[in-house]
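Final report, section 2: Outcomes. Of the targets proposed, Putative restriction endonuclease domain-containing protein is the one most frequently requested by collaborating groups, and we therefore present its record in full.
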Amino acid sequence: MYPTPMERFEDFTRHRPEGKLELIDGRLIVGNSLVGSRLLLRQILHGWKVDAAIALAPLDTWIQALAVGYDLTLPETGAVDEKLNSLEAQVCSVNFNPEDLQSACAEVTWSHHRLQQNLSMSLFRLAEEVGGQSFGRDFVMRLSNNGFTPDLLFFKGEGLNQLYGSFLSGPAELVVEVQIQGHEEVDRVTKRDYYQTAGVPEYWLIDPQTQRCEFYRLVEEQYQLQPIEDDGYYRPSSVPGLAFQADALWQEEEINPWASSLFIVEQRLEGFERLPAEEGPRWGSLLFIPNIQAEAVPISFEEYISWAPRAKFEFIQGKPLIGSTPGTRNVLAMLLMTFGLAGAVKLLPPYAWIQGLKQRLEGERQDAERKAEWWAIAREAAERLRTHFSIRRLGVIGDLAMAQPLNYWSDITLVYWEKLEDSWRAYDVLRDLDPDMRRIDLLQVDQNWLTADQLWQIERHLVEL
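The predicted structure is given below as C-alpha cells.
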C-alpha cells in the first residue's frame, strides 16, 4: 500500500520538486508547477500516511470525495460505517494506476546554487549604496493576491512597493530568476507575464547552462529585451547608479561575494536610510482553519503568508519535512485546498483511504480512553518540571484541552510562564514519558512569539495544572 522507507527516500532525493512554495491564482505552487505540487503532496502522503491528511477535514467530506474521485456509488442513507463498507466492496474492482509525476523534478545543480548565492550576496553588499534593499530566496513578493519568491529582488520602497516583516507588497524594482533546466517556460512565459502585468520594471533571466543573461525592461507596459552596453555592463533603469557585469558570472575561479565585481556602484546615494517595515500578516498570524472541501478552494494571500513555512525540504525518519512538523501540516492542508479532496484521493489507492478513514473512526470512538492516558502523562510531566526547574505555573492547551477528539496532529502542549534555563534539559527529564518526543511539546508564554492559534487556545481553552 505504501513504498518502503528506502523507496520513499530514493523518490524524494531523485524526483522531489525544487524547494519553492509560491501562491499563484489561489493555488500553492511547488517548484514552479502544479505537477510539482502534486508530486510533493504524494510524497507527504507516502511518508506521513493518509492519516495525516484525513485528520484535516470532516469524515463526511472525505467519504464524498472518495466516491467522486473514483466514481463510486454512496448509499443514500446509513451510518459512516455502512458507507465505508459499501465503498470498500466497490474498490475491489478499481484498477489503480499511479500518476507519472517525475516530470516535475528539476535538478538544482551546484552552478545554480553558486550563481544564486553570489548574486544575492553581491547585491546585498551594495544595496544601501544605491538606496535600496536586496533579498534572496524565501522572501515573498506580493503581486495582487499572488506570492512569488524570486531568486533575487531589489527594492527601494519609494512608492512602487511597501516592505512588511514577511513580504514585499508590490513590484520590486529588480527581479532576477536563475533558470533551471525544464522550467524555462515558467520563467520565460508564466512569471514574465505576471511580472509585466504587475509592473516589475526590470526582470532578468540568468541561465547557468547556456551562460546567457537576458535583461527585460518594462517600456510602455511591455517587456523589451535590452542589450549589454559596449563596456560590458548592463545598467538597470530602475536602479540608477548600479551596473552589472554579466561576464563575471562565468569566470572559473571562485567568486568572493564580499569583493565581487558582479555589481559596481557608479553613483553612490548619500544619506540613504532604510524605511522600517510595517507589521502586516506573518507566520502564524491567522488561525489555522483551512477550508478543505471535495473540490479545490482558493487560498488567500493572508492564509499563504501565515501558514506557509520556509521552503526547506528535508527527509527525516522516512518522511519529508517542510520546515517543521507544523510547517508540513500546513503545506499538506494548502495542497489539499489546491487540488480538492476528490483530486487528492487519486494519488493513492482507494483502499488506503478507506483504511485510514476506518482508523480515524475507531480512534474517535476510543477518544475518552486516549485522552485519559494523555492527561496522566501531562500531569506527571508537570510534576517533574516543577521538581527539577521550580516552575510554578503550568497549563495545557491544544486538542487535549478541548472537546474535539484527538487526531493525527494532536500533541500534549504544556505551557509555562517563567523563564526556563537550559530548556533542552526539560526534554531529557520527560524523555521516558515520551521516548520519541513526538507527543510532548513545551511552550513558553511570550506574546511576541506566539501564533494566533496558541494565543487563542491560551485565552479560551487553557487548563491549568
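The two ends are 42 Å apart (CA to CA).
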